[in-house]
DNA sequence: AAGACTCTGTTCGATAACGCACATAGAGGG
DNA sequence: CCCTCTATGTGCGTTATCGAACAGAGTCTT
């Protein structure tokens, strides 16, 4: 029988599906991990899937590996904005262990992929039983809080173009490639602006040589350029994540924030 | 010797300073409360006082009674926005027990008054030792998360006038009177908009008979009207707070959200 | 290969908020 | 009581984003 850390290496080397692709799961102690592993359920998360509806009861927490989940709030008039995103660095469903069980926002898949989920009951048992799990989850929650506050300030003070840069970078950090598969329409609904605004901004970035795109695909050509063009918000969110969860390791890119 | 609940009644009847004026402290079990009471330090919180600076180390958590604290984020260019407010319904310094110890925002007093504080060390001891304290703090933190997300969406989609209504209502809920003592300039910096924008919006509300104001003082005349005029955001934040912390009792007003 | 559909580019006027300049008017200190 | 300081009111022109309408272009289906 191989031990947990061996399996971790194997999974990474082969780039097969593995719970270790999620940074939080990977940061668990061997003891905790081995206890929950049998209960981790591998799930497909196709684009658009709604994992929970505003006010609904949470049955699971989700640890995305290749998928990205968007938490967004839908106003009475139908307008909406993304409040935060959750990728392989995090977990969906913090309200479960925070004690609220529901939140007034919707969680839907913004980048199709896979992930693992854990039943509410098991998560709570673990949270209450293992100091380690609780600390990790609370620190992640604080990183999420940072992301939300930053979104609030950014919405008020920065241009659509700057926000687009921030959003692209945050999304890129959760992907293994430098190509995003999504339409301008979708990005617009994430940022809560008009689709035309994204067309404008993306056009500018393309002319500046930072990105290149075609129907439903965006390739980032110059990451450093994007970072310079983005507002400070990206850096703050990134730095806080690294500070709060150093054991989750560095993301694919963005080494300059990993200090 | 009087017991805790006797003292609570006495404090309320006499309207003297008492830790029970803070809803979270009041919601603690007698056992926990009696343990921390000797360590609660009564502090004055004059307008403008900075309780902590972005990135600074937290030495205490603060439980406001009559003061209101504003968490705001200050951008590199000096612009700023309030991300959330903390009054007698809450506690300042959640990052302490969430495990981060610092947050990238500034906390300053937006309405002068008083409160109690507890040393970091004692707070942590209690958090780790008493299940009750931990649950309460986590549920409050989730309410705070709701407030932050709502701020993000509100910043994007609602007019200055609607936001002013929301802000007035939230502030009013934390005060025993229906008069706020602050300048338009100050409100503007809270909402992250121009002072002239507030002058406009406040003028409209006054003409509509909902408020009346003079230099540095705003009196709310028609609370129901304000609620109707505000965006949905106020109600959502309020309802979540009541849902998550029912034991903190209803606020002075806003009974319609206490369902 | 053709057609349908969806995504992207572009236009136009409308609107909300900004930035600045300056006038007026309370409030508090000497 | 006057004077000064600061808060509030108002009027510009400027800018960013919105809202709606439509043309072109890619992609997928049949």
Task: Give a description of the structure.
The structure is a homodimer of 259-residue chains. Chain A has helices at residues 4-14, 23-27, 30-36, 94-98, 120-129, 131-157, 160-172, 184-191, 195-207, 223-229, 232-244; strands spanning 41-45, 50-52, 60-64, 68-74, 80-86, 106-111, 113-119, 179-180, 211-214, 217-220. By secondary structure, chain A is of the alpha+beta class. Chain A folds into two domains: 4-158, Jelly Rolls (Sandwich), CATH 2.60.120.10; 159-230, Arc Repressor Mutant, subunit A (Orthogonal Bundle). Chain A has a four-stranded antiparallel β-sheet. In chain A, a hairpin with a 2-residue loop joins strand 9 (211-214) and strand 10 (217-220). In chain A, helix 6 (131-157) packs antiparallel against helix 11 (232-244), helix 7 (160-172) packs across helix 10 and helix 8 (184-191) crosses helix 9 (195-207). The first copy, chain A, starts with a helix and ends in a 15-residue tail after the last helix. The interface between A and B is large, with 43 and 43 residues. The first copy, chain A, binds a DNA duplex (30 and 30 nucleotides) through residues 159-160, 183-185, 193-197, 199-200, 202-203, 214-216.
